[in-house]
Structures are given as structure tokens and as C-alpha cells.
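Entry:
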Amino acid sequence: MRELARFRQMYSPEDVRRDPHLEWALQYGLLEAIQIVIDLSCHIVSARNLSVPATYAECVGLLSRAGLLSGDVAKTVAGMVGLRNIIVHEYISVELKRVYDLLDRLDDFRAFAAQIQPYV
């Protein structure tokens, strides 16, 4: 999170739009953060035998249904999973503004971490 917050302080959306390397760094940094959320979610689901999820988003939903993650945080994280899939699989072109705006939502990652911390 520290590096993403630092990235936000150093670069404007215009900077990122002008420099493909910065755009790549932003996408990769967020991808890594989202993947950590996914990995932790699926690990907890598995360790607690909550079910056998078919998708990453289902891991998050199972945490919410088990009461380990609030509905609001689960909804936000599920959206992150969707963005991760778009970035990784390039289903559609990723809107730079949407990705950059996630830098203003780093507290969502922190909220997830705080809620799942007791179960890791």
C-alpha cells in the first residue's frame, strides 16, 4: 500500500496517460495488491472449509456469508476481483481513470486487511 500511496503522490493521471511505463507500473501495482486480497480470501476459505469456490469472487462472498467480512467490504473487494480479471485477461481496454481512481481507495484494502487479520 505504501508504494501505491507514494505513486499517487508522485504522479497525476496526466503523467500516467503520457507515459506507458507509468501506466504499466500502476496496473501492475494494483494487480499485485488485488492478487494478495484474492490469495488471502481463498486461503481463509480453504483453511476454514467454508466451501469449494468456483471463482475468486466467490471466495470473497463466502467470507462475507460466514461473517468474516462485512458486506460493504466484500462488495468492494468483489469489484477489485473484476478489475483484476480485466487487467490480466484483457477482456476489454482498461480505463486509465478507473484504475488511477483506485489510488484514492487504498483504505478499502486496509479495511479488508483489518477485517480478515484475525483469521489469517
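The domain at 2-119 is CATH 1.20.120.580 (Four Helix Bundle (Hemerythrin (Met), subunit A)).
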